[in-house]
């Protein structure tokens, strides 16, 4: 019968009915098992309910064209809102307003940009409106609002506040910027200083690997050089950077040699920073009579980079007053094959300079620094100290940071360049920030300070700087330099023009250098003296002392001033490395010794972890008269190895316990490492016992030999 037979139908129905609960249970179990599997395979989960809290928004506003109003040209103002929460923000209206009365002082500009205060004495008028789209969680929304230039027509030249108000979800937000109605262009000179610096990893000079990375197409030094090319920027060059390329000679990376040639060919005026950009303000505060420098760079020279090589001098560029001349020709091989290695002057040559300029770290120098540096004699005449205008004034209360003063000044007869602190700070932000709206706001702020400087001193020179801390894209540096070269309608020029004419007499406030920096330098100087004593074990101590000085100068570099935590880390790492060097030569701690003879040499090991052989003296002394020891033993320890040293010792007693004290010293008597004590157990009577035993054994063997010989003779006779 088939399964559908009527006779079996009731039975099948009964079985199906009974199986329904089991089937349902099975299906439900399978569904429960499939849910996590589906989720694991990327199935779309159910929507998460939106948070019920308010969005967290921040608002920014910045005008285009670096904030400068141009007649008949619309003003494009960018407004952006950033949502840092997980709650979306709805779209909202944006209103732009400005005041009919300009911001007259730097204090007003700083206060406005910091908080956009509401001032009842100011009449604010609307200048534009727009709408911001909804801002998704963790996203940014922006809009551009075009402002009719007629809004600012007829206004007197000056710096005018700009406010953006945004009706945001959960409340209203405001952001502030400024716009500048320009006056007639200034007639005074304008200087823009850009530092060319780089911090090595710890060797004192950039290594070939570091140079290869920094001067590659996307390297920091290459990008910075490309950014200043074609501009009138005054270059502040760390001679350690150019020296790092030259010490390698022909073995330097190709990109580094190209970078150096391009730098030397630039027509820009320039001056040399201290080696490693060492902060002179810290050195003055530490009481040093002269700024520190490297005595030579010979230990860094790669001799193979000069053998048979001839490096042609860079062609002399043409343009500007401070045109750098061709660098001093590098050494070449003589006919006999001998190589003349370059001098320190050749290695650190940055090109022709108009003057000796000291540039302390921003905010660290004041009247006492200028006075100390002005008395130094230099090849180019009296030095110039570059100080930011935060030090301008008679006391700490009469002026705010960044107050305007002529750039070319005199302080008690000392020549001083005052950089506009407010404009310089804003330009550095513009060069370093990756956000376009933040860059535009910083450029507007820099132009505001430039306009105020022009209003205060129409015919006086103006100086702005990019700080050493810049780590920016070429685009950011180029935009900042382009804006800086037109501050106040001026045109950027060279260092000679900036410092020509009679300087204005001003007063500077004292400036305090951080005690941590001064204490760090004192510690470094103490370590350096200790290392110099230690280096007397070497045939050429400069292989240690020169890199120590070069690295030390980088540790006190001005660029660390803005990052105290990183500065402390660099100081700690350098001091640790110095202590490791001082511990690299020592006596290997010996085990207890048993002296089983009246005289015998005792063997010890001297460890030398340095890359060079060292010459030492092992001084051995005893604590009691039981032993006589050779007091001084010459040691010539090979590089990177342990060297065995034998010290002759005589015992005066047959048995006893004694101690031997060991100390390494340099040929000049400088203690190297700490003393080592060795316990010596004297067992000189063992020697007598041993001799007696040996004599007895020899006598017994002789007697035995005689007996055997006599027996052999007797046997022969009997046979």
What does the model show?
32% of the residues lie in helices and 24% in strands. It has 719 residues and is α/β, with parallel strands linked by helices. The strands form 6 sheets. It has a 5-stranded mixed sheet. Helix 10 (421-432) packs antiparallel against helix 11 (436-456), helix 11 (436-456) packs parallel to helix 12 (474-484) and helix 14 (515-534) packs parallel to helix 16 (564-582). The longest helix is centred in the C-terminal third of the chain and has 34 residues, at 685-718. It is elongated, with a radius of gyration of 40 Å. The protein starts with 8 loop residues before the first helix and ends with a helix. Residues 1-50, 309-336 and 395-402 have low confidence and may be disordered.
How does the SSE layout of this entry go?
Layout: H1 9-40, E1 57-63, E2 75-83, E3 92-99, H2 106-115, E4 124-132, E5 140-147, E6 158-168, E7 171-181, E8 190-196, H3 208-214, H4 220-228, E9 234-237, H5 239-246, H6 254-265, E10 270-272, H7 280-285, H8 344-347, E11 357-358, H9 367-374, E12 384-388, E13 408-411, E14 414-419, H10 421-432, H11 436-456, E15 462-465, H12 474-484, H13 495-498, E16 504-505, H14 515-534, H15 542-555, H16 564-582, E17 585-587, E18 593-595, E19 599-608, E20 614-622, E21 627-629, E22 632-637, E23 641-651, E24 655-665, E25 671-683, H17 685-718
Parallel strand pairs: 8-9, 8-15, 9-10, 11-12, 12-14, 13-16, 18-25
Antiparallel strand pairs: 1-2, 2-5, 3-4, 3-6, 6-7, 13-14, 17-19, 19-23, 20-22, 20-24, 21-23, 24-25
């Amino acid at each position: 019968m088939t399964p559908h037979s009527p006779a079996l139908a009731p039975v099948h129905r009964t079985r199906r009915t009974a199986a329904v609960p089991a089937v349902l249970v099975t299906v439900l179990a399978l569904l429960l098992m499939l849910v996590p599997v589906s989720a694991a395979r990327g199935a779309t989960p159910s929507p998460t309910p939106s948070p019920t809290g308010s969005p967290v928004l921040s608002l920014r506003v910045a005008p285009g064209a670096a904030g400068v109003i141009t007649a008949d040209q619309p003003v494009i103002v960018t407004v952006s809102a950033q949502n840092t929460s997980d709650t979306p923000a709805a779209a909202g209206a944006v209103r732009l307003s400005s005041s009919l009365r300009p911001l007259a002082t730097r204090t007003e500009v700083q206060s406005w940009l910091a908080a956009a205060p509401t001032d009842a004495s100011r009449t604010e008028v609307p200048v534009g409106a727009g709408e911001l789209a909804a801002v998704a969680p963790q996203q940014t929304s922006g809009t551009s609002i075009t402002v009719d230039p007629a809004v600012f027509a007829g206004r007197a030249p000056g710096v005018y506040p700009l406010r953006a108000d945004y009706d945001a979800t959960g409340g209203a937000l405001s952001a502030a910027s400024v716009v500048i109605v320009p006056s007639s262009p200034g007639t005074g000179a304008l200087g823009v200083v850009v530092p060319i610096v780089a911090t090595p990893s710890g060797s004192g000079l950039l290594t070939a690997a570091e140079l290869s990375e920094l001067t590659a197409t996307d390297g920091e030094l290459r990008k910075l050089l490309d950014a200043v090319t074609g501009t009138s920027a005054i270059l502040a060059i760390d001679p350690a950077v150019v020296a790092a390329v030259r010490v390698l000679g022909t073995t330097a990376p190709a990109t580094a040699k190209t970078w150096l040639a391009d730098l030397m060919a630039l027509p820009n005026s320039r001056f040399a920073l201290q080696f490693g950009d060492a902060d002179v303000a810290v050195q003055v505060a530490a009481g040093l009579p002269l700024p520190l420098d490297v005595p030579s760079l010979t230990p860094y020279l790669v001799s193979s980079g000069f053998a048979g090589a001839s490096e042609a001098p860079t062609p002399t560029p043409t343009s500007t007053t401070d045109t750098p001349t061709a660098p001093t020709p590098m050494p070449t091989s003589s006919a006999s094959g001998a190589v003349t290695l370059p001098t320190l002057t050749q290695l650190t040559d940055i090109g022709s300079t108009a003057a000796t300029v000291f540039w302390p770290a921003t905010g660290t120098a004041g009247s006492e620094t200028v006075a100390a540096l002005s008395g130094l004699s230099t090849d180019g005449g009296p030095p110039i100290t570059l100080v930011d205008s935060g030090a301008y004034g008679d006391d700490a209360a009469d002026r705010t940071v960044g107050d305007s003063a002529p750039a070319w000044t005199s302080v008690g007869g000392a020549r001083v360049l005052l950089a506009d602190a407010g404009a310089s700070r804003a330009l550095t932000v513009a060069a370093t920030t990756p956000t376009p709206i933040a860059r535009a706001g910083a450029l507007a702020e820099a132009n505001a300070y430039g306009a105020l400087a022009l209003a205060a001193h129409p015919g006086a020179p103006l100086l702005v700087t990019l700080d050493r801390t810049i780590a920016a894209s070429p685009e950011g540096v180029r935009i900042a330099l382009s804006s800086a070269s037109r501050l106040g309608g001026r045109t950027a020029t060279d260092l000679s023009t900036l410092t020509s004419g009679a300087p204005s007499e001003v007063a500077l406030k004292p400036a305090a250098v951080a005690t941590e920096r001064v204490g760090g330098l004192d510690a470094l100087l103490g370590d350096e003296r200790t290392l110099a004593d230690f280096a007397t074990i070497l045939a050429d101590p400069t292989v240690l002392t020169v890199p120590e000085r070069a690295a030390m100068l980088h540790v006190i570099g001005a660029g660390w001033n803005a990052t105290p935590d990183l500065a402390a880390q660099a100081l700690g790492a350098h001091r640790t490395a110095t202590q490791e060097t001082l511990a690299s030569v020592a006596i290997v701690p010996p085990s207890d010794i048993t002296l089983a003879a009246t005289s015998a040499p005792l063997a010890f090991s001297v460890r030398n972890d340095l890359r060079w052989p060292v010459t030492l003296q092992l001084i051995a002394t005893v604590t009691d008269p039981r032993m006589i020891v050779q007091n001084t033993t010459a040691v010539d320890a090979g590089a990177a190895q342990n060297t065995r040293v034998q010290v002759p010792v005589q015992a005066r007693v047959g048995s006893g316990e004694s101690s031997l004290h060991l100390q390494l010293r340099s040929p000049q008597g400088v203690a190297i490492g700490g003393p080592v004590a060795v316990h010596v157990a004297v067992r000189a009577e063992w020697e007598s016992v041993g001799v007696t035993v040996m004599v007895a054994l020899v006598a017994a063997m002789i007697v035995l030999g005689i007996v055997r010989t006599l027996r052999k003779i007797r046997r022969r006779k009997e046979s």
